[in-house]
Design brief:
The structure is a homodimer. The first copy, chain A, is an alpha/beta fold. Chain A has 2 domains: about 240 residues, Queuine tRNA-ribosyltransferase-like (TIM Barrel), CATH 3.20.20.105; about 90 residues, no CATH class. Chain A is built from 13 helices and 16 strands. In chain A, the strands form 4 sheets. An 8-stranded parallel β-sheet of chain A has the order 4-14-13-12-11-10-6-5. In chain A, strands 1-2-3 form a 3-stranded antiparallel β-sheet. In chain A, helix 12 packs across helix 13. The longest helix of chain A has 27 residues. In chain A, about 55% of the residues are buried.
């Protein structure tokens, strides 16, 4: 079937929650939603090959506009046939815009209305990333989903800065859409607004008026408590169009994926599975397992008996412990494989449950719940009055 | 077919050289010789899985007695079902004895007639490795081929020390055989002797009188020029039994593998393919390629067009350059995969040529020849008078 442009197809909706299952169609095939997207900042998911990611069931991989813009430069990747050809990943790809780097590299970055001026962490040169430049770079990279450049304010900044960043992000969203020029490339806007529910709702409602192919919720999971995260997420989602995919940026803890799906999120990304994997921590249904801990030494069982990942199919915790103790790269790789598969399977199981009308919060083992989560608080509805108009 | 003990089967011999092709039968299957054996010091080949090693065509993998003795300890591996079960490699395995560590860790090691006392590089405790202990550890590890504990003297030590180490190695060889107690485990002796041809010949002839299942040539490729290596190798081989496998330890440069095969070597091991791979250097038939060099940045071609490795089948040199510039683990892994496959294929092609009576020194591209090699010098015969008796 010829690709006729990005489109979101909702296949089933949960009755007991806002969860839904669907397909987001891209030029490189559909993304089954809800989906967890592994992060390949530098056009490579740390230590893993595209074939492995495919066999783990990942539909879509992320890369980062800011990092690739600096090195190797988008011209080189375009010359190689685009990001897909360069890194040999043939499925859907999403490129983050560089907005998160305005936060993470804020001590090397100055933001004005025109854009963000970065002092490169590689060679100290100054480079201006504008909303238009971010769209240009993403068009050259040829990702399937481009993100509008946003400003992600620090969690602990004052209300004035949150408000200013949120309003500027909205103006940048309009400029991003005006600059759009890669046919077939979906463009997503990013809703900011800090943790103030009124601003969250207002920003989402304003963004919802723009013809984006999907909407991301940014500025969450940046240090705030989960009791602040979920109401802010709800305030955004309440005001975003239900017929477009919702992408909760930077969230990837198992308990958070489940909670996000329940609250209507379709897409997630996070470096957590590979970052934790490299430090010797493996996800399990009973919570994180530290493979370096002395007790792991004598364990002949895999990380999880029931896990279908290539690591659990073959290697014991005792062997993984030995690899981490010896600084062997293989350990980092095997733990990363397990962790990515764990998250992909978690969202995949949720998707199957939604499709089978069996989605239920009991899918989440109680051991995965965060301690700061208010059990039974339900989804706050108080901000849904600010509807998209 | 039931395994009836280690046995070497010679299938073909070259007429123009000493090269031969065969099978060394072990409890975990045959090793096709000549063979290149990748090194997994800590029961893991740096960054690669057993499945990958198998798909690269490696028949036998090495592990290190000294390192595994210190960590995790042979009892733990025995408890896990032996080295094969622990690291999930089901093919033949060879364990080095710890003799090379007497050289590489010589500043932490004191050698007496009883054995070598190491100050552990992990926890500073003192531990005595005797020939008997090395056999015990290897029996517990359950490798298919155990090596007798030897003393590998530094390249630049005086003649007195070479002579003393060589004589002690012979006495330790006898003690190793007397201590042998793992049924079905092959035991190889190691011929030392420095670069003096008379001592080399004498040591090999003395070792040849002992009923080892195979014979290694040690103490070469430790710093000496290749013009010294090859005569010393010949002096050893001239005095070792032709019906037993010959193993040239620690040699793995492409040009050296070829030269070794021509001179009658059956087995090789080396950390070179993974060590070079991790630093961004790839073997090619035109010599080593530095993937970090600026010219690699714009190369759309694979490392070698004709290479059947998973890296060359999929990735460009430009992408690999990008990975190394960004410190991405995937680059190290992809270069290591290529390098191991390059060496395995090199010996595999040599084997096919020997079996097809087509083995010829012209198989070696002139670009692989070392500059210090004396072209056309042929194999010196002057020491062959010291025959095994």
């Amino acid at each position: 079937m010829a690709f006729s442009g990005p489109a979101f197809e909702i296949l089933a909706e949960s009755t007991g929650s806002r969860a839904r299952a669907g397909l987001f169609h891209t030029a490189h095939g559909p993304i089954r939603t809800p989906a967890f997207m592994p992060v390949g900042t530098n056009a490579a998911v740390r230590g893993l090959t595209p074939s492995e990611l495919e066999s783990l069931g990942a539909d879509c991989v992320l890369a980062n506009t800011y990092h690739l813009w600096l090195r190797p430069g988008e011209e080189l990747i375009q010359r190689a046939g685009g990001l897909h050809a360069f890194m040999r990943w043939n499925g859907p790809m999403l490129t983050d815009s560089g907005g998160f780097q305005i936060l993470s590299l804020r001590h090397f970055c100055h933001v004005e209305e025109a854009g963000a001026t970065f002092r490169s962490h590689l060679d100290e040169t100054e480079r201006l990333l504008t909303p238009e430049a971010a769209m240009d770079v993403q068009a050259a990279l040829g990702s399937d989903i481009a993100m509008a450049l946003d400003i992600c304010p620090p969690y602990d900044c004052g209300l004035v800065e949150v408000e200013r960043s949120t309003q500027r992000t909205l103006r940048w969203a309009e400029r991003s859409l005006a600059a759009r020029h890669a046919p077939g490339q979906a463009v997503f806007g990013i809703a900011q607004g800090g943790t103030g529910l009124a601003l969250r709702a207002e920003a989402a409602a304003a963004l919802a008026r723009l013809p984006f192919d999907g909407f991301a919720i940014g500025g969450l999971s940046v240090g705030e408590r989960r009791t602040e995260t979920w109401p802010a997420l709800d305030a955004s989602i309440d005001n975003l169009p239900a017929d477009r995919p919702r992408y909760l940026m930077g969230v990837g803890a198992p308990e958070d994926l489940f909670e996000g799906i329940r609250r209507g999120v379709d897409l997630f990304d996070c470096v957590l599975p590979t970052r934790l994997g490299r430090t010797g921590v493996a996800f399990t249904s009973h919570g994180p397992l530290d493979l370096r801990r002395p007790a792991a030494r004598l364990t002949d069982e895999p990380i999880e008996e029931c896990c279908d990942c290539p690591t659990c199919q073959r290697f014991s915790v005792g062997y993984l412990h030995h690899l981490f103790r010896g600084g062997e790269e293989l350990g980092m790789r095997l733990a990363s494989l397990h962790n990515v598969r764990f998250l992909v399977r978690l969202v995949c199981n949720a998707r199957e449950a939604i499709l089978g009308a069996e989605f239920d919060s009991e899918l989440l083992p109680s051991s995965l719940r965060r301690e700061d989560e208010e059990e039974g608080a339900g989804r706050p509805r108080q901000v849904s009055a600010v509807a998209a108009t």
